[in-house]
Design brief:
heterodimer; A: 2 domains; four-stranded antiparallel sheet; B: Rossmann fold; six-stranded mixed sheet; 35% helix; 26% strand; globular
Chain lengths: 299, 225
Amino acid sequence: MSRGTIRAFVLGDAQADRMVPPNGITARLTLFVAAAMAFLAVFALALSLATGRLADRWAGELAHAATLRISAAPDQRAAQTEAALEVLNQTEGVASARALSEAEQAALLAPWLGPDLALEELPVPQLVEVIAEDPPYDLAGLRLRLSAEVPGAVLDDHSRWRRPLVDAALSLRRLGWISLLLIVGATGAMITLAANAAMAANAQVIEVLRLVGATDDYIAQAFMRRFTLRALSGAGVGTVLGIGGVILLPAASDEGGFLTGLGFQGAGWLLPLLIPMLAAAVAFLATLRATRRCLGALN
Amino acid sequence: MIELENVGYSYGGGELLSDVSVRLSPGSFHFLTGPSGAGKTTLMKLCYGALQPTTGRVRAFDADMAGLDRDQMALLRRRVGVVHQDCRFLDHLPLTDNIALPLIVSGHDKEQQRQNLDDLMNWVGLSQRAEALPPELSGGERQRAALARAVILSPDVVLADEPTGNIDWEMSQRLLQLLIELNKMGKTVLVASHDLALIRAAKSQVQARVLRIANRQLHLAGADL
């Protein structure tokens, strides 16, 4: 398309827009497909962004945190905890080390054992939260020293369960982006089909326009503007409905785990607004291709 | 202006036109006659590039039509006004928009469109039917509207394919007068018609050559008309 044609496309031409009959199944199909795909795209985008945040948080927070578990007889527990804290505070690369209070440990077990937990009646080990500096401590060296000075201590750097969680979150994010790509592809395919159908249904209109001296650009533009605007408006409606659905999702909470907080955060709320633009761009390109091919075949 | 040189056209394995040569000079008036199915419409389509010849070549305004791309062909069609036998309108648009189509697609501004339209609607006697949709028009009105559309860009050549095929004698005469007026304005006119009475009536008013298609070839008709 020439620069002048693109300008005419953007500004619009009411007379050119009227050249193609307004009714038909393709109009409703394009609107519906754009709305439905935009609705799904909002959720795919929300899923991608939320799982990305989750993966970053898990990777970041857990990478710097470790837990020291001290299993010792009740009469030796305080002494071993004291000794462990002393070792940790002397270790280079440890930012802080703190023994969890009984209330904190009870809160950690509450989801599984209930809120009225008598912790003193259970053989629950003492937990120590260890926060690493950047660069962190030498894990193997610290383990060796702890095994020598605090025999009942086991240092867990969370890597055993952190990696699968981060992998799962990253996989979900990947699936979200793949879904978005599939939505874009499916939208393009559906609009191409609709444009082909519209061109075939309006073969006589095209013939008349050619007879009176219309160029291919002019004819293509009449179809492209219509499909692009339909996709834009349909996707606009779908996006608004999708954002409404995301707003109705449960807010992020610790109790809900990763299934809550799947919405957008901060500037992320602006991203769905790109979906109608993307739908319009897809419709524009799909219709451009379809009209070129059809006009070539009708020659 | 438009020239066919040794043109042949085959369709579906059969030869419809063979070794046809004719030149439509500027300001000339030609009738094209012959029995139904002889190839009148095909020859007209060859003249405005809707069909490409199987053999020979068609030249329009000094350009070989075979060498024109689609955009160039669109520009050429703005210089050749065509009246189809079945008129071919956009049925969802009112008559004014249909007649203004060549102006609209060639990017003329609305003021220019309005001026040309008013003049033309008066000329073809359709001012009162401006907002009617094409299916609401009579056969004669459709033919006059098609003629108005064909000439609204003031083309150099007007091609009319059986323009009086579906209308009564009185309306045929009226349409013929419009074509003669166009010719007197300097337009080149080619009218395909099997209506010999109409051709005889025209010959008394305008200097016209009559071409007859017979046995796939084009002949100049003589006193036997």
